[in-house]
Prior knowledge:
The chain is mainly alpha-helical. It has a single domain, classed as Multidrug-efflux Transporter Regulator, Chain: A, Domain 2, CATH 1.10.1660. Helix content is 51%, strand content 6%. The chain has 3 helices and 2 strands; from the N terminus they run ααββα. The protein has helices at 8-15, 21-30, 48-62, and strands at 37-38, 44-45. Strands 1-2 form a two-stranded antiparallel sheet. Strand 1 (37-38) and strand 2 form a beta hairpin. The longest helix is centred in the last third of the chain and has 15 residues, at 48-62. The protein is globular.
Amino acid sequence: MNAGYLTIKELTDAVGGNLTPRMVRHYHQLGLLPQPTRSPSNYCLYNQQDVIRWQRIVALKQQGF
């Protein structure tokens, strides 16, 4: 894969907290988060900033927000 980028599965594994690929796609479909970068093979690619953003979202959800 592209250096410095994670696939959606790698993103969910890195973030943890019961984050699923379906949840990530749902947030994109609702327009709550920008569409991710795409690979030449059309895979969604996520960077470290995306990991941090998702860690915050998961933490807030766990706190009831």
